[in-house]
Structures
1.
Amino acid sequence: MTAFSGTGYRYRIVLSGECGSLVAALFTDVTIESARGRTCVTACVQDDSELYGLIHRFEDLALHLISLGELDVVEAADTLGRSPGPPVSSPRAGDVAAAGVHLT
């Protein structure tokens, strides 16, 4: 896991499929892990607008968003099932729905 520059909020975004090489080519300042049919993207954003912009870019690429969660500063970003981690705070469902994102 790499450290992010600046301040902001860290999010873990899990996408369906192993699309790490595509995401790495198109997105900067993100950490990407692909395994077991999923891609985990950890990104640092400054505000809600930047988060929604990132989500919309995934939608534009027809990537299926499986989950979205805000990370604590000290929390590890291992989402791919290799080790259990502390609970992740839930995204604000109303905000995500307002952005037109459907979580399954």
Note: The CA atoms of residues 39 and 53 lie 19 Å apart.
2.
Amino acid sequence: MNFDVCLVRLKMEFAIVEFTADSSVDIVATNWLARNKTVCYWPNVKKPAALEKVLKVRAAPGSDWAQFDVRVLHEYGTIVNVITNLISLPRDAYA
């Protein structure tokens, strides 16, 4: 019996980015990235729980979201992969 092997490209839904203004690092949804992934829209929320919520559902950027210059360090398919890899990311990867 023959089986065809299909390669499916995993959609990268989250990324670890470095904000170039202050060298801080955070997790973003890839749909928050623009201009060849050099600009990130950031939600207008104050509480960490609200930020976590919009991140998990990959909310579409709103007109009131701020824009920041970023450098994408790595992209991942799931939020679990991002968190796991952020914890183990060597400091020199974003220094």
Note: The first helix runs from residue 48 to 56.
3.
Amino acid sequence: MRVAEAELLELAEAVRRACLDAAREGYRDAAISGLCGEGAQEAALGAIEMVDLAAIVRRDQVLFSGK
């Protein structure tokens, strides 16, 4: 079964949102903790690396299957 382009775009958008949310939260938390701008940026990048991609895929599979 071929995944429709619209479904792939929806999945990609979910990944983008998760990465942006993680980066914002990681940066904010690091800045609150007193890290400098560069340190907060590194924390934001680390937060993106920790995004649970499998959870996003599982969630979208449920949405795509209509369950």
Note: DSSP finds three helices and no strands in the chain.
4.
Amino acid sequence: MPTRSSSSRRRYRVGRSKAGLGLFALKPIKKGEFIVYYTGRIITNAEADQLWTRYLFELNSRWTVDGSSRRNIARYINHSCRPNAETDVKKHKIIITAIRNIQPGDEITYNYGRAYFNAFIKPTGCKCEACRKKRLEARRDARRAAARKSDLRHAA
């Protein structure tokens, strides 16, 4: 009888995404199902302000989790304006659960929140799928408007 490899038990993988590295589902994940814990050292917010890392998750007004360790697989979950997962803090643990069904091959994403978005994402532009589609539609509409304007000039 063949033995199962460890990869057959894995529920997700780290892979290349539009925003860098991302976490992708290997098996279906149902709405409300636990995905992963966001783990790391618990440090004070004052210590967190001194660090040059983006893998910080604020628990409350006093404590932050430094998730920069590569053992923290949840650090690969990217931001999305239309996420398929959410975070919840319970007793200094950060739990990530699905807010809708996630199919194999889908990237797992959650909304990082307004403060993080404004500080790190907004200056360079959001790279989530929803925002990419919005930008493509806006560019398409602008090209069509310019073409119509050009056609009107040539017709006159």
Note: The chain has three helices and ten strands.
